[in-house]
Design brief:
Layout lengths: L1 H7 L1 E3 L11 E2 L6 E2 L5 E3 H4 L2 E6 L11 E5 L11 H7 L2 E4 L6 H16 L19 H26 L2 E4 L11 H21 L7 H22 L1 H27 L3 H15 L3
Antiparallel strand pairs: 1-4, 2-3, 5-6, 7-8
């Protein structure tokens, strides 16, 4: 590392502000060492405000380093990987976070919005040609009605359903099965590890054994998720499809009480069979 710093005109910036820290901890907790460092130019080194390790992150044996700077501004160039990563994070509805209150607000708003949708009376007859409509005009009216209904649904979802940020660089670090298999064990292991560090990292006693046992359980759960990633993702996809079908029935349950809507759905289904 020293040779790399000399060749690149870098300095090891964390040695001066840090003291008696560790960035690596073995699985059994018996070996700790400071093997990870932060390198930067001499100009940046003069702007370092604070530096610290983050022992609360236990997903890896190596603990991350965090460095803060003073009087430092960053300009992200459009088209750069950083800008593309930022722009690729798009919020999507997360139906797993929906509670009864959110669902009630969603149903109420959707019902109010759908009441404002204009249903073309001329499409409610058995034969649109009898009222002077061509096939093109009938298609256009059906498309407009479909667009109005989907717009109402999207707006109600946007206003009432919790969203999660997914996409781009974010997806590369998602662990399949985290919420169902790993999360609880991670929380317990993290709390036990921080208590162990706060107590001076003892090599025996109840805190040491609790840290060791909970950390092993967390890593076992992580290993299980990685070994069964394909199966877990397939199960999640199946559950997602089931949730979408349930949502479709929920929306139809809101639409169907209206007699005109029932009639229009019948027309849409009939026209589809006829190739319209």
């Amino acid at each position: 590392m020293l040779e790399d710093c000399v060749d690149s005109n870098f300095v090891i910036a964390d040695i001066k502000p840090l003291c008696n820290v560790f960035t690596f901890c073995s699985d059994d907790g018996l070996r700790q060492s400071w093997i990870d460092h932060f390198m930067c130019s001499s100009v940046l080194n003069e702007r370092i405000l604070t530096a610290c390790t983050l022992p609360q992150f236990i997903s890896s044996d190596h603990k991350p380093l965090m460095v803060t700077f003073k009087d430092l501004s960053v300009n992200v160039i459009s088209g750069s990987p950083a800008a593309q990563t930022t722009c690729s994070h798009t919020p999507t509805p997360d139906w797993s976070k929906v509670d009864d209150y959110s669902l009630l607000r969603f149903e109420t708003m959707l019902n109010d919005l759908l009441n404002e949708v204009n249903i073309t009376v001329s499409l409610l007859g058995s034969d649109y040609a009898k009222v002077g409509l061509s096939e093109t005009q009938a298609r256009l009216m059906v498309d407009n009605y479909y667009q109005a209904v989907t717009t109402c649904i999207k707006h109600a979802v946007q206003m009432n359903i919790p969203h999660s940020v997914k996409g781009g660089h974010y997806n590369q670090h998602v662990v399949a099965g985290w919420n169902d298999v790993v999360k609880d064990k991670h929380d317990v292991a993290r709390a036990a590890f921080l208590d162990w560090v706060e107590d001076g990292k003892p090599r025996q006693g109840p805190l040491f054994f609790l840290m060791n046992r909970t950390r092993a359980a967390f890593k076992l759960a992580m290993r299980y998720c990685k070994q069964h990633e394909t199966m877990i993702r397939a199960d999640n996809l199946a559950n997602s499809i089931t949730d979408r079908v349930a949502l479709a029935f929920l929306i139809l349950g809101i639409l169907l009480p209206c007699h005109a809507c029932r009639r229009l759905w019948y027309i849409l289904a009939t026209n589809k069979e006829d190739g319209i």
